[in-house]
């Protein structure tokens, strides 16, 4: 775990498409494991928006940010309702990691539409770490169909050791591109 948090995780996020200077939304960031690693990759000229509705996890993340002198993570405390207070066409990558299964059907559609709205035209990436397949009503084929219906196309699929809850597991990450609607 230590090795993943200190070095391997950064290599993996780069492989998943995160680069210097990007603006990233970590939706349902929890205590910010991915936000913090991504903040190292995007550097001082990039930015991470770490969004969650749970005050307790955000407090933990706030403490980590202070202790580690991180200055490129902005915390967004949301309500449980899906709304993302970011400008349209402004975000390079949205991390939707281990959170989609927690939403009900309507919220899944609302979230995907919000992600579509905020992602940059042509380049914006929705990166989905597909956890809990086969439970929480998550059937990968159906989720993929829904994501495509909203206006995304799958362009890369990865199998990588991923942080999940409090362990590292071999995970599936699907990267989608926003397609321009006519
Ligand atoms: C299992 S944790 C995953 C945390 C992090 N993404 C990771 O992979 O380590 C799911 C997080 O999503 C948050 N979450 C669930 N539904 C949400 C919603 N509607 N709006 C914002 N955050 C939400 C929860 O509060 C929780 O912190």
One letter per element, helices H and strands E, the order comes to HEHEHEEHEHEE
| Total domain modules | 1
What's the assembly state of these chains?
A: single chain
The strand order across the widest sheet is 3-2-1-4-5-7-6
Condensed summary:
This protein is α/β, with parallel strands linked by helices and 182 residues long. It has helices spanning 2-15, 33-42, 55-67, 105-118, 140-150; strands at residues 23-27, 47-52, 73-77, 93-97, 125-129, 152-164, 167-178.
Fold and architecture overview:
- With 182 residues, this protein is of the alpha/beta class.
- The chain has one domain: 3-Layer(aba) Sandwich (Rossmann fold).
- Helices cover 34% and strands 28% of the residues.
- It is built from five helices and seven strands; from the N terminus they run H-E-H-E-H-E-E-H-E-H-E-E.
- The longest helix is centred in the N-terminal third of the chain and has 14 residues.
- It starts with a helix and ends with a strand.
- The model has no long low-confidence stretch (mean pLDDT 96).
- The structure holds S-adenosylmethionine.
- The site of S-adenosylmethionine (SAM) has 19 residues, from helix 2 and strand 2.
